[in-house]
Amino acid sequence: MSVPHSRILGTGHYVPERVLTNQELEAKVDTSDEWIVSRTGIRERHIAAEGEATSDMASEAAKRALAAAGIEATDLDLIIVATVTPDMPLPSTACFVQSKIGARRDCPSFDIAAACAGFIYGLDLADKFVRTGAAKYVLVVGVELLSRVMNWDDRTTCVLFGDGAGAAIVGASDGERGLLSTHIYADGGFTQSLQIPGGGSVEPATASSVAQGRHTVHMIGKDIFKAAVKNLSAASKAALEQNDLTTDDVDWVVPHQANLRILGGVSERVGIPMSRFYLNLERYGNTSSASIPIALDEGVRAGEIKPGQTVLVCALGGGVAWGSAVMRF
Ligand code: UT7
Q1: Is 116 a catalytic residue?
Q2: Inter-axis angle of helices 260-270 and 221-242, to 10 degrees?
Q3: Which of 107, 116, 158, 314 is catalytic?
């Protein structure tokens, strides 16, 4: 009996309306549009409205993905939400999403925390559920509301990130199209390099921890930069090797959108020109786990990422956790 493989049946994304430009940031911290663009490639990012929650953004993206896949929320067998900015530590954001999109009250729903690699971790899990027959339709959402965990006085982080959500419906493939492989990895030697140190069991929230901004993102950018170039390149090569693909076979690389210079390094090391990298970071900044599904959905809706094309995705973030996946889209 042949083992079924999985395919992305539909995608959707949502970004909040409010756009925050580099010029506006110039008025808040000691930075410049020139520095941000030349060091990262980012020009603007979207910021959630007051009262808008992570699960609101996730649900909007999920509804659009369900519509694109042509299925109902009640058809879902599993909901996976990848986020490091949940609505609250308990319960999972996935449970809020289940309720907001009208999925079945018995549909298993849980969050995963793999930072910027979260969507690829989610795809890996969804693929395994579909292959084993444990689920027919899986919703995978990558969503972040990073503006709520930014230190808006820290120019080394606040210029980099944005809010948004992207979603995919993963189901069984009935043909050539589908996920060819997923590779996921983590290296706990980098736990100090990218953290939200406060608010957990190590440093529970106190008036003083909040005053010191311990509940906001702290990053040693250079550590993450170097780890990203090295590991994204290796994971991308592993994905190609596993599927006997050459760099010429890849129509699109849809990478995690953190920094144009990181992607330049990956392009050079893997040997795929930047013209085949699908990029939108100049308009969204780094939306962590949401960046790949937002880019995928934009590419699909723009008619640029087409059925049957070979698409490589790769991401690295806090942990560090990283991964890659290849699909015949
Ligand atoms: O999503 C996964 C997680 N994140 C990432 O992938 C991000 C990975 N890291 C990076 O993208 C880069 O390391 C950054 C964009 C964060 C920083 O770029 P860099 O080339 O590594 O710059 P740097 O940290 O070495 O800083 C260079 C200079 C410093 O000044 P001095 O010490 O040379 O005088 C910084 O203080 O730039 C300064 N600087 C800024 N200047 C203006 C740092 N941030 C800013 C800023 N505006 N926003």
Answers
A1: yes
A2: 40
A3: 116
